[in-house]
Amino acid sequence: MLKNTLFSRRSPNKRREDVFYLLIVSAILVVNFIGFASTYYNAGILRAPLPSFLVHLHGALFSLWLLLLLTQTMLVSTGKVRWHRRLGVLGGMVAAMMLIVAPLTLMAALHRHAFATARGAAFVVVADVEGVALFGSFVVAGLFKRNNVVVHKRLMLFATIAILGPALSRWPFHFMDWPPAIFLLWLAFPLSVLLFETLSQGKPYSASVLSSLVILVYLLSVAPLSSTQPVKRAIRSVGYAYNR
Question: Would you write out the chain's pLDDT as a tens digit for each of its 244 residues?
């Protein structure tokens, strides 16, 4: 009986890491659920009044990715590596579809003027394009490093952290009106990884440090890039007007 229990075959350090990863992945799922509860999950998912089939597909793919991440984390924790690798094929396919559907969904939102202002549209475009590009980069790097367990699992986790923005920006809490709130909540995820690794082994893995720096640069770059002339011209080209 004991041999089949969760984490029982792992060393104490591995068990702690297993628990941490299950917690942080679960937290990511909670962040996503809170952000999209009213418009998607609690609205019936397939019956949710979304603007188009494309938006439904976008939501389904991103939700499936999160469920796959949780499942993959649990499979590794229980030693089912063979199943983890088999399911990884599906994960790669879902990620590839996300990289196609996400930009199409963003373009459709721009053309139907889903954003209140030109500045808001510019900010979302830059944040989403950068986030999806980082997601794809982390996933590709993670697949390339699939035989290096330490690096692989961190790259897949950071790939998911890179696309937390849309969910966090939709949190229906008053404290989210404070401009730095999203920034701080977003950064809490990479900082949690660095803190856990520092406390558990004395220092964080280089993969975690580099990935955290990439996320930080991404978050700091969105506002400046959204104010550049090329981005403004792109936003004007779909009918938005900047107020002087």
Answer: 434 444 445 677 788 999 999 999 999 999 999 999 999 999 999 899 999 999 999 999 999 999 999 999 999 888 888 899 999 999 999 999 999 999 999 999 999 999 999 999 999 999 999 999 999 999 999 999 999 999 999 999 999 999 999 999 999 999 998 989 999 999 999 999 999 999 999 999 999 999 999 999 999 999 999 999 999 999 999 999 987 6
Residue with tokens 């809170």: 34
What's the rounded Cα separation, in Å, for the pair 139 and 17?
Answer: 21
Task: Give the amino acid at 27.
Answer: A
Global confidence as pTM = 0.92
> Which helix or strand (DSSP H or E) is residue 105 part of?
helix 81-111
> In sequence order, which residues have a C-beta less than 8 Å from that of residue 222 and are 6 or more positions away?
123, 126, 127, 130
Nearest alpha-carbon partner for 17 in 7, 27, 9? 7
User: Do residues 165 and 127 touch, judged by C-beta distance below 8 A?
Assistant: yes
